[in-house]
Design goal:
The complex is a heterodimer of chains A (112) and B (111). By secondary structure, chain A is mainly β. Helix content of chain A is 0%, strand content 59%. Chain A contains no helices and eleven strands. Chain A has strands at residues 4-7, 10-13, 19-25, 31-38, 42-51, 54-57, 64-70, 73-78, 87-94, 101-103, 107-111. In chain A, the strands form two sheets. In chain A, strands 2, 4, 5, 6, 9, 10 and 11 form a seven-stranded mixed sheet that branches. Chain A has a four-stranded antiparallel sheet with strand order 1-3-8-7, with no helix packed on it. In chain A, a hairpin with a 3-residue loop joins strand 4 (31-38) and strand 5. Chain B contains no helices and eleven strands. In chain B, strands 2, 4, 5, 9, 10 and 11 form a six-stranded mixed sheet that branches. Chain B has a five-stranded antiparallel sheet with strand order 1-3-8-7-6, with no helix packed on it. In chain B, a hairpin with a 2-residue loop joins strand 6 and strand 7 (62-67). The radius of gyration of chain B is 13 Å and the shape is globular. The interface between A and B is medium-sized, with 25 and 21 residues.
Chain lengths: 112, 111
């Protein structure tokens, strides 16, 4: 599992509230990713990071922000949650040389 | 605009048969093509991957065939087993460090 944990694993929140999801890795990987998974859409990249304080947008970044102040932690924030952000969120790391990507166990977020 | 198109959406195969899932892409900047297997309630797991400089890669019962000129790649699962029943995703990595995924294929292997 490449030492990836996500917290919380499940969360129910109300529309308009801020939400932060945490991804933690123990193997000092430079590249980290946040995805959302929805039926019929596969996995879609939200944001990714290529180092501490270095982040970039993915294809579905609107409504999300990220921060990476330490190598091991990559935070995903929904500033004001909407029902369209109900989804399963996966964090992943990527090995720099081989490109291999490994996923965390996921966070199921429900926005009511 | 779907960068990676995957088919079929679902597939039913008899035990011992060959499962074939296809993907196509347009962006020539892609340079790494992985396949993932996902069981319900779990994160996707890397199954096998290929770089565009080779046409085929085999690992056990799983084979990727890659056709660079046609911009297509496929996953073949030989001697399919009920334990292979899962959702499979193809993906492609571009030179900008972004992965694009297909929409997934739900495979059911009937005993």
């Amino acid at each position: 599992d490449a030492g990836i944990t996500q917290s919380p694993r499940h969360k129910v929140t109300e529309t308009g509230t801020p939400v932060t999801l945490r991804c933690h890795q123990t193997e000092n990987h430079r590249y980290m990713y946040w995805y959302r998974q929805d039926p019929g859409h596969g996995l879609r990249l939200i944001h990714y990071s290529y180092g501490v304080k270095d982040t970039d947008k993915g294809e579905v970044s609107d409504g999300y922000s990220v921060s990476r102040s330490k190598t091991e932690d990559f935070l995903l924030t929904l500033e004001s949650a909407t029902s369209s952000q109900t989804s399963v969120y996966f964090c992943a790391i990527r090995y720099r040389e081989t490109y291999e990507q490994y996923f965390g166990p996921g966070t199921r977020l429900t926005v009511t | 605009q779907q960068q990676v198109k995957q088919s079929p959406q679902s597939l039913i195969v008899q035990k011992g048969g060959i499962s074939i899932i296809n993907c196509a892409y347009e962006n020539t900047a892609f340079d790494y093509f992985p396949w993932y297997q996902q069981f319900p309630g779990k994160g996707p797991a890397l199954l096998i991957a290929i770089r565009p400089d080779v046409s085929e890669k085999k690992e056990g019962r799983f084979t990727i065939s890659f056709n660079k000129s046609a911009k297509q790649f496929s996953l073949h699962i030989m001697d399919s087993q009920p334990g292979d029943s899962a959702t499979y995703f193809c993906a492609a990595l571009n030179t900008g460090n972004q992965f694009y995924f297909g929409t997934g294929t739900s495979l059911t292997v009937i005993p």
